[in-house]
């Protein structure tokens, strides 16, 4: 009798353990065996098609009554180590219109990242990625490859020559600072970086490092001056490049790296805070900043001048469309609002389902999305930083790279002056219009309006523009973008303000 009780207790305990054992074995096989994963995903695909009524029901009369049978359209699932390809037949079947917009549905059903959709003659193919976490790298592995760019993950590179300027967005505590410090490991090794920190927070410990000494800016006025000085650096670099191209007998001007120039980066943290600090009545300062910012964004690439902006919330007020769309590489770290993702990744990702989670297997991770403007965003994990790793120690070992194109550093560090012939070369009105995506007729109209308002300028296409006139034109374009007033109103407003500044009426 006692043995029977023991046996019953044992069998009862075993039955209670069956669900837990089944769940454990399911997770174990799913993580270890690719074939098991494939079977699970085939089941999910079949369930998806059935539950969404993607099938044709047929009825057949038999002796026993009407027998119903369902037939699925042709669907193929191909699985690779880190990717899943789902091919859905089109060719006039009743579901073809619905089959064209299933990216976000598949993301949810398979808990994967929708990467691409290829429209073929017979099939539409969806590409999804999983196990993106396995592509994460350590901060020490963030390096530069001349052909690929900055390595951000095993499968992700920022090629700043092909995709100039970097925009990083994410909420407080999302990991933006950790990410950008990892990026600096590569940037400080290959070029010059000026960093702007309007909140005097994350870059304060770095200002005494030799590689960044005199290159960290805090006050709003100094940050604006940094951007304006960046424009001058850009012009100096372009002038030198033109001189070298002329000496080589080249008919077309190449990229900066062709002439042996290192890249130059201006990094601005807490960009929302910076713009907000210029909105309290100091319109002139904001206008100066927006003009310099726009000129660097639109013209900096060829000269090797690149901007990196970090912000908590991307908005049209802080980032006009012309600026946002010309910052070609976008990364989100941490959580964004529902309006933040469309602002960062555009209409190309309107059907993408952005997921937000901060922990993986119980551990905190800095996760987000990355994309070149116009492409689908992919899941991204910020470089790992272990407890034994220190950014300061890495930066401290770097030698300082001179910046002979910066007039402020040239005088302090005894660098040689730039050739007079190079400095003397100027941009024509036609060149300026082309570089800024401005119709030449509009550029001429602006020049004529400047003349009407008392400015001595020439409006012909070949007219040489001084740096002062170029900066004035950029201010006019920026003001037009912000206010949407007519050029006649904008030009008069800018000219009046310039006269007030010159007379000391505006402090």
List the helices and strands and how they pair.
Layout: H1 2-32, H2 34-51, E1 56-62, E2 65-71, E3 75-79, E4 83-89, H3 96-99, H4 103-110, E5 113-119, E6 123-129, E7 144-145, E8 149-153, E9 156-158, E10 166-169, H5 176-190, E11 192-196, E12 216-217, H6 220-248, E13 264-268, H7 271-277, H8 283-303, E14 305-311, H9 321-324, E15 329-333, H10 340-345, E16 359-360, E17 363-364, E18 367-372, E19 378-381, H11 391-396, H12 407-413, H13 420-424, E20 427-428, H14 429-435, H15 440-452, E21 464-465, H16 467-483, H17 487-503
Parallel strand pairs: 10-14, 10-15, 11-12, 11-13, 13-14
Antiparallel strand pairs: 1-2, 3-4, 4-6, 5-6, 7-8, 8-9, 15-18, 16-17, 18-19, 20-21
Helix pairs in contact: 1-2, 6-8, 8-16, 15-17, 16-17
Pfam family, one: FtsK_SpoIIIE
GO molecular function: ATP binding; DNA binding
Keywords: ATP-binding, Nucleotide-binding
Describe this structure in words.
It holds the Pfam family FtsK_SpoIIIE. It comes from Streptococcus sanguinis. ATP binds at residues 170-177. GO terms for molecular function: ATP binding; DNA binding. Helix 8 (283-303) packs across helix 16 (467-483). It is globular and about 105 Å long. The termini are far apart. It is an alpha/beta fold. An eight-stranded mixed β-sheet has the order 12-11-13-14-10-15-18-19, with helices on both faces. It contains 17 helices and 21 strands.
């Amino acid at each position: 009798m006692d043995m029977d009780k023991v046996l019953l207790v044992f069998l009862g305990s075993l039955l209670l353990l069956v669900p837990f054992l089944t769940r454990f074995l399911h997770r174990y096989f799913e993580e270890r065996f690719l074939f098991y994963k494939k079977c699970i995903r085939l089941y999910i695909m079949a369930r998806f098609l059935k539950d969404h009524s993607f099938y044709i029901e047929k009825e057949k009369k038999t002796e026993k009554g009407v027998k119903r049978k369902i037939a699925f359209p042709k669907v193929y699932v191909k699985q690779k180590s880190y990717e899943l390809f789902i091919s859905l037949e089109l060719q006039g079947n009743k579901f073809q219109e619905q089959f064209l917009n299933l990216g976000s549905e598949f993301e949810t059903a398979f808990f994967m990242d929708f990467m691409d959709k290829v429209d073929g003659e017979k099939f539409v193919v969806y590409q999804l990625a999983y196990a993106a976490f396995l592509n994460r790298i350590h901060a020490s592995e963030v390096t530069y490859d001349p052909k690929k760019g900055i390595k951000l993950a095993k499968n992700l590179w920022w090629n700043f020559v092909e995709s100039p300027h970097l925009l990083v967005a994410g909420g407080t505590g999302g990991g933006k600072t950790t990410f950008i410090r990892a990026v600096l490991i590569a940037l400080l090794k290959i070029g010059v970086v000026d960093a702007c920190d309007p909140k005097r927070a994350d870059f304060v410990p770095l200002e005494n490092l030799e590689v960044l000494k005199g290159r960290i800016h805090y006050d709003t006025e100094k940050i604006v001056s940094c951007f304006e000085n960046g424009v001058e650096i850009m012009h100096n670099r372009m002038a030198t490049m033109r001189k070298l191209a002329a000496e080589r007998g080249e008919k077309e001007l190449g990229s900066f790296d062709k002439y042996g120039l290192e890249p130059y980066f201006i990094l601005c943290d807490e960009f929302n805070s910076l713009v907000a600090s210029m909105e309290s009545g100091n319109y002139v300062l904001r206008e100066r900043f927006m003009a310099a910012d726009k000129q660097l964004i639109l013209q900096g690439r060829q000269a090797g001048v690149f901007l990196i902006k970090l912000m908590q919330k991307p908005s049209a007020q802080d980032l006009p469309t012309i600026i946002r769309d010309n910052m070609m590489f976008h990364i989100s770290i941490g959580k964004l609002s529902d309006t933040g993702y469309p602002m960062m990744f555009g209409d190309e990702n309107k059907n993408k389902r952005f997921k937000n989670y901060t922990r993986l297997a119980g551990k905190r991770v800095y996760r987000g999305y990355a994309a070149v403007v116009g492409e689908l965003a992919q899941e991204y994990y910020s470089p790992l930083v272990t407890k034994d790793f220190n950014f300061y120690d890495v930066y401290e070992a770097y030698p300082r790279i001179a910046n002979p194109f910066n007039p402020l550093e040239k005088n302090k560090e005894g660098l040689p002056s730039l050739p007079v012939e190079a400095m003397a070369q100027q941009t024509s009105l036609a060149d300026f219009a082309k570089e800024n995506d401005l119709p030449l007729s509009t550029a001429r109209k602006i020049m004529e309006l400047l003349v009407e308002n008392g400015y001595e300028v020439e409006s012909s296409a070949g007219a040489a523009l001084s740096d002062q006139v170029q900066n004035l034109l950029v201010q006019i374009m920026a003001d037009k973008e912000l206010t949407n007033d007519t050029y006649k109103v904008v030009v008069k407003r800018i000219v009046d303000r310039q006269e007030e500044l010159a007379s000391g009426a505006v402090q």
